[in-house]
Amino acid sequence: xxxxxxxxxxxxxxxxxxxxxxxxxxxxxxxxxxxxxxxxxxxxxxxxxxxxxxxxxxxxxxxxxxxxxxxxxxxxxxxxxxxxxxxxxxxxxxxxxxxxxxxxxxxxxxxxxxxxxxxxxx
Length: 122
Prior knowledge:
76% of the residues lie in helices and 5% in strands. By secondary structure, it is mainly α.
């Protein structure tokens, strides 16, 4: 009984540690991408690319085996598609598409607000 409790606590610790490592790494990738895209002259394109990367890296989905665990959606999509589980890959892909669609709408809204209010471009 007590061994099962420690095993579950240990799994939770590993799960949290894995997410912390992943989030730190994803933040590093985002910072590098910020520097890589700083010379793109079109503000809307630059912002869309940056936010799309954020959506790609930070969108989680629940695993199908155990609904208590969340993993990055792009990893689930790629892994399950490689294994031939297209239904699970589609679910992860739809989560990513919804996030990128929201980003596209927000970036376009910002563009139109800046254009009609005559705000400074950069």
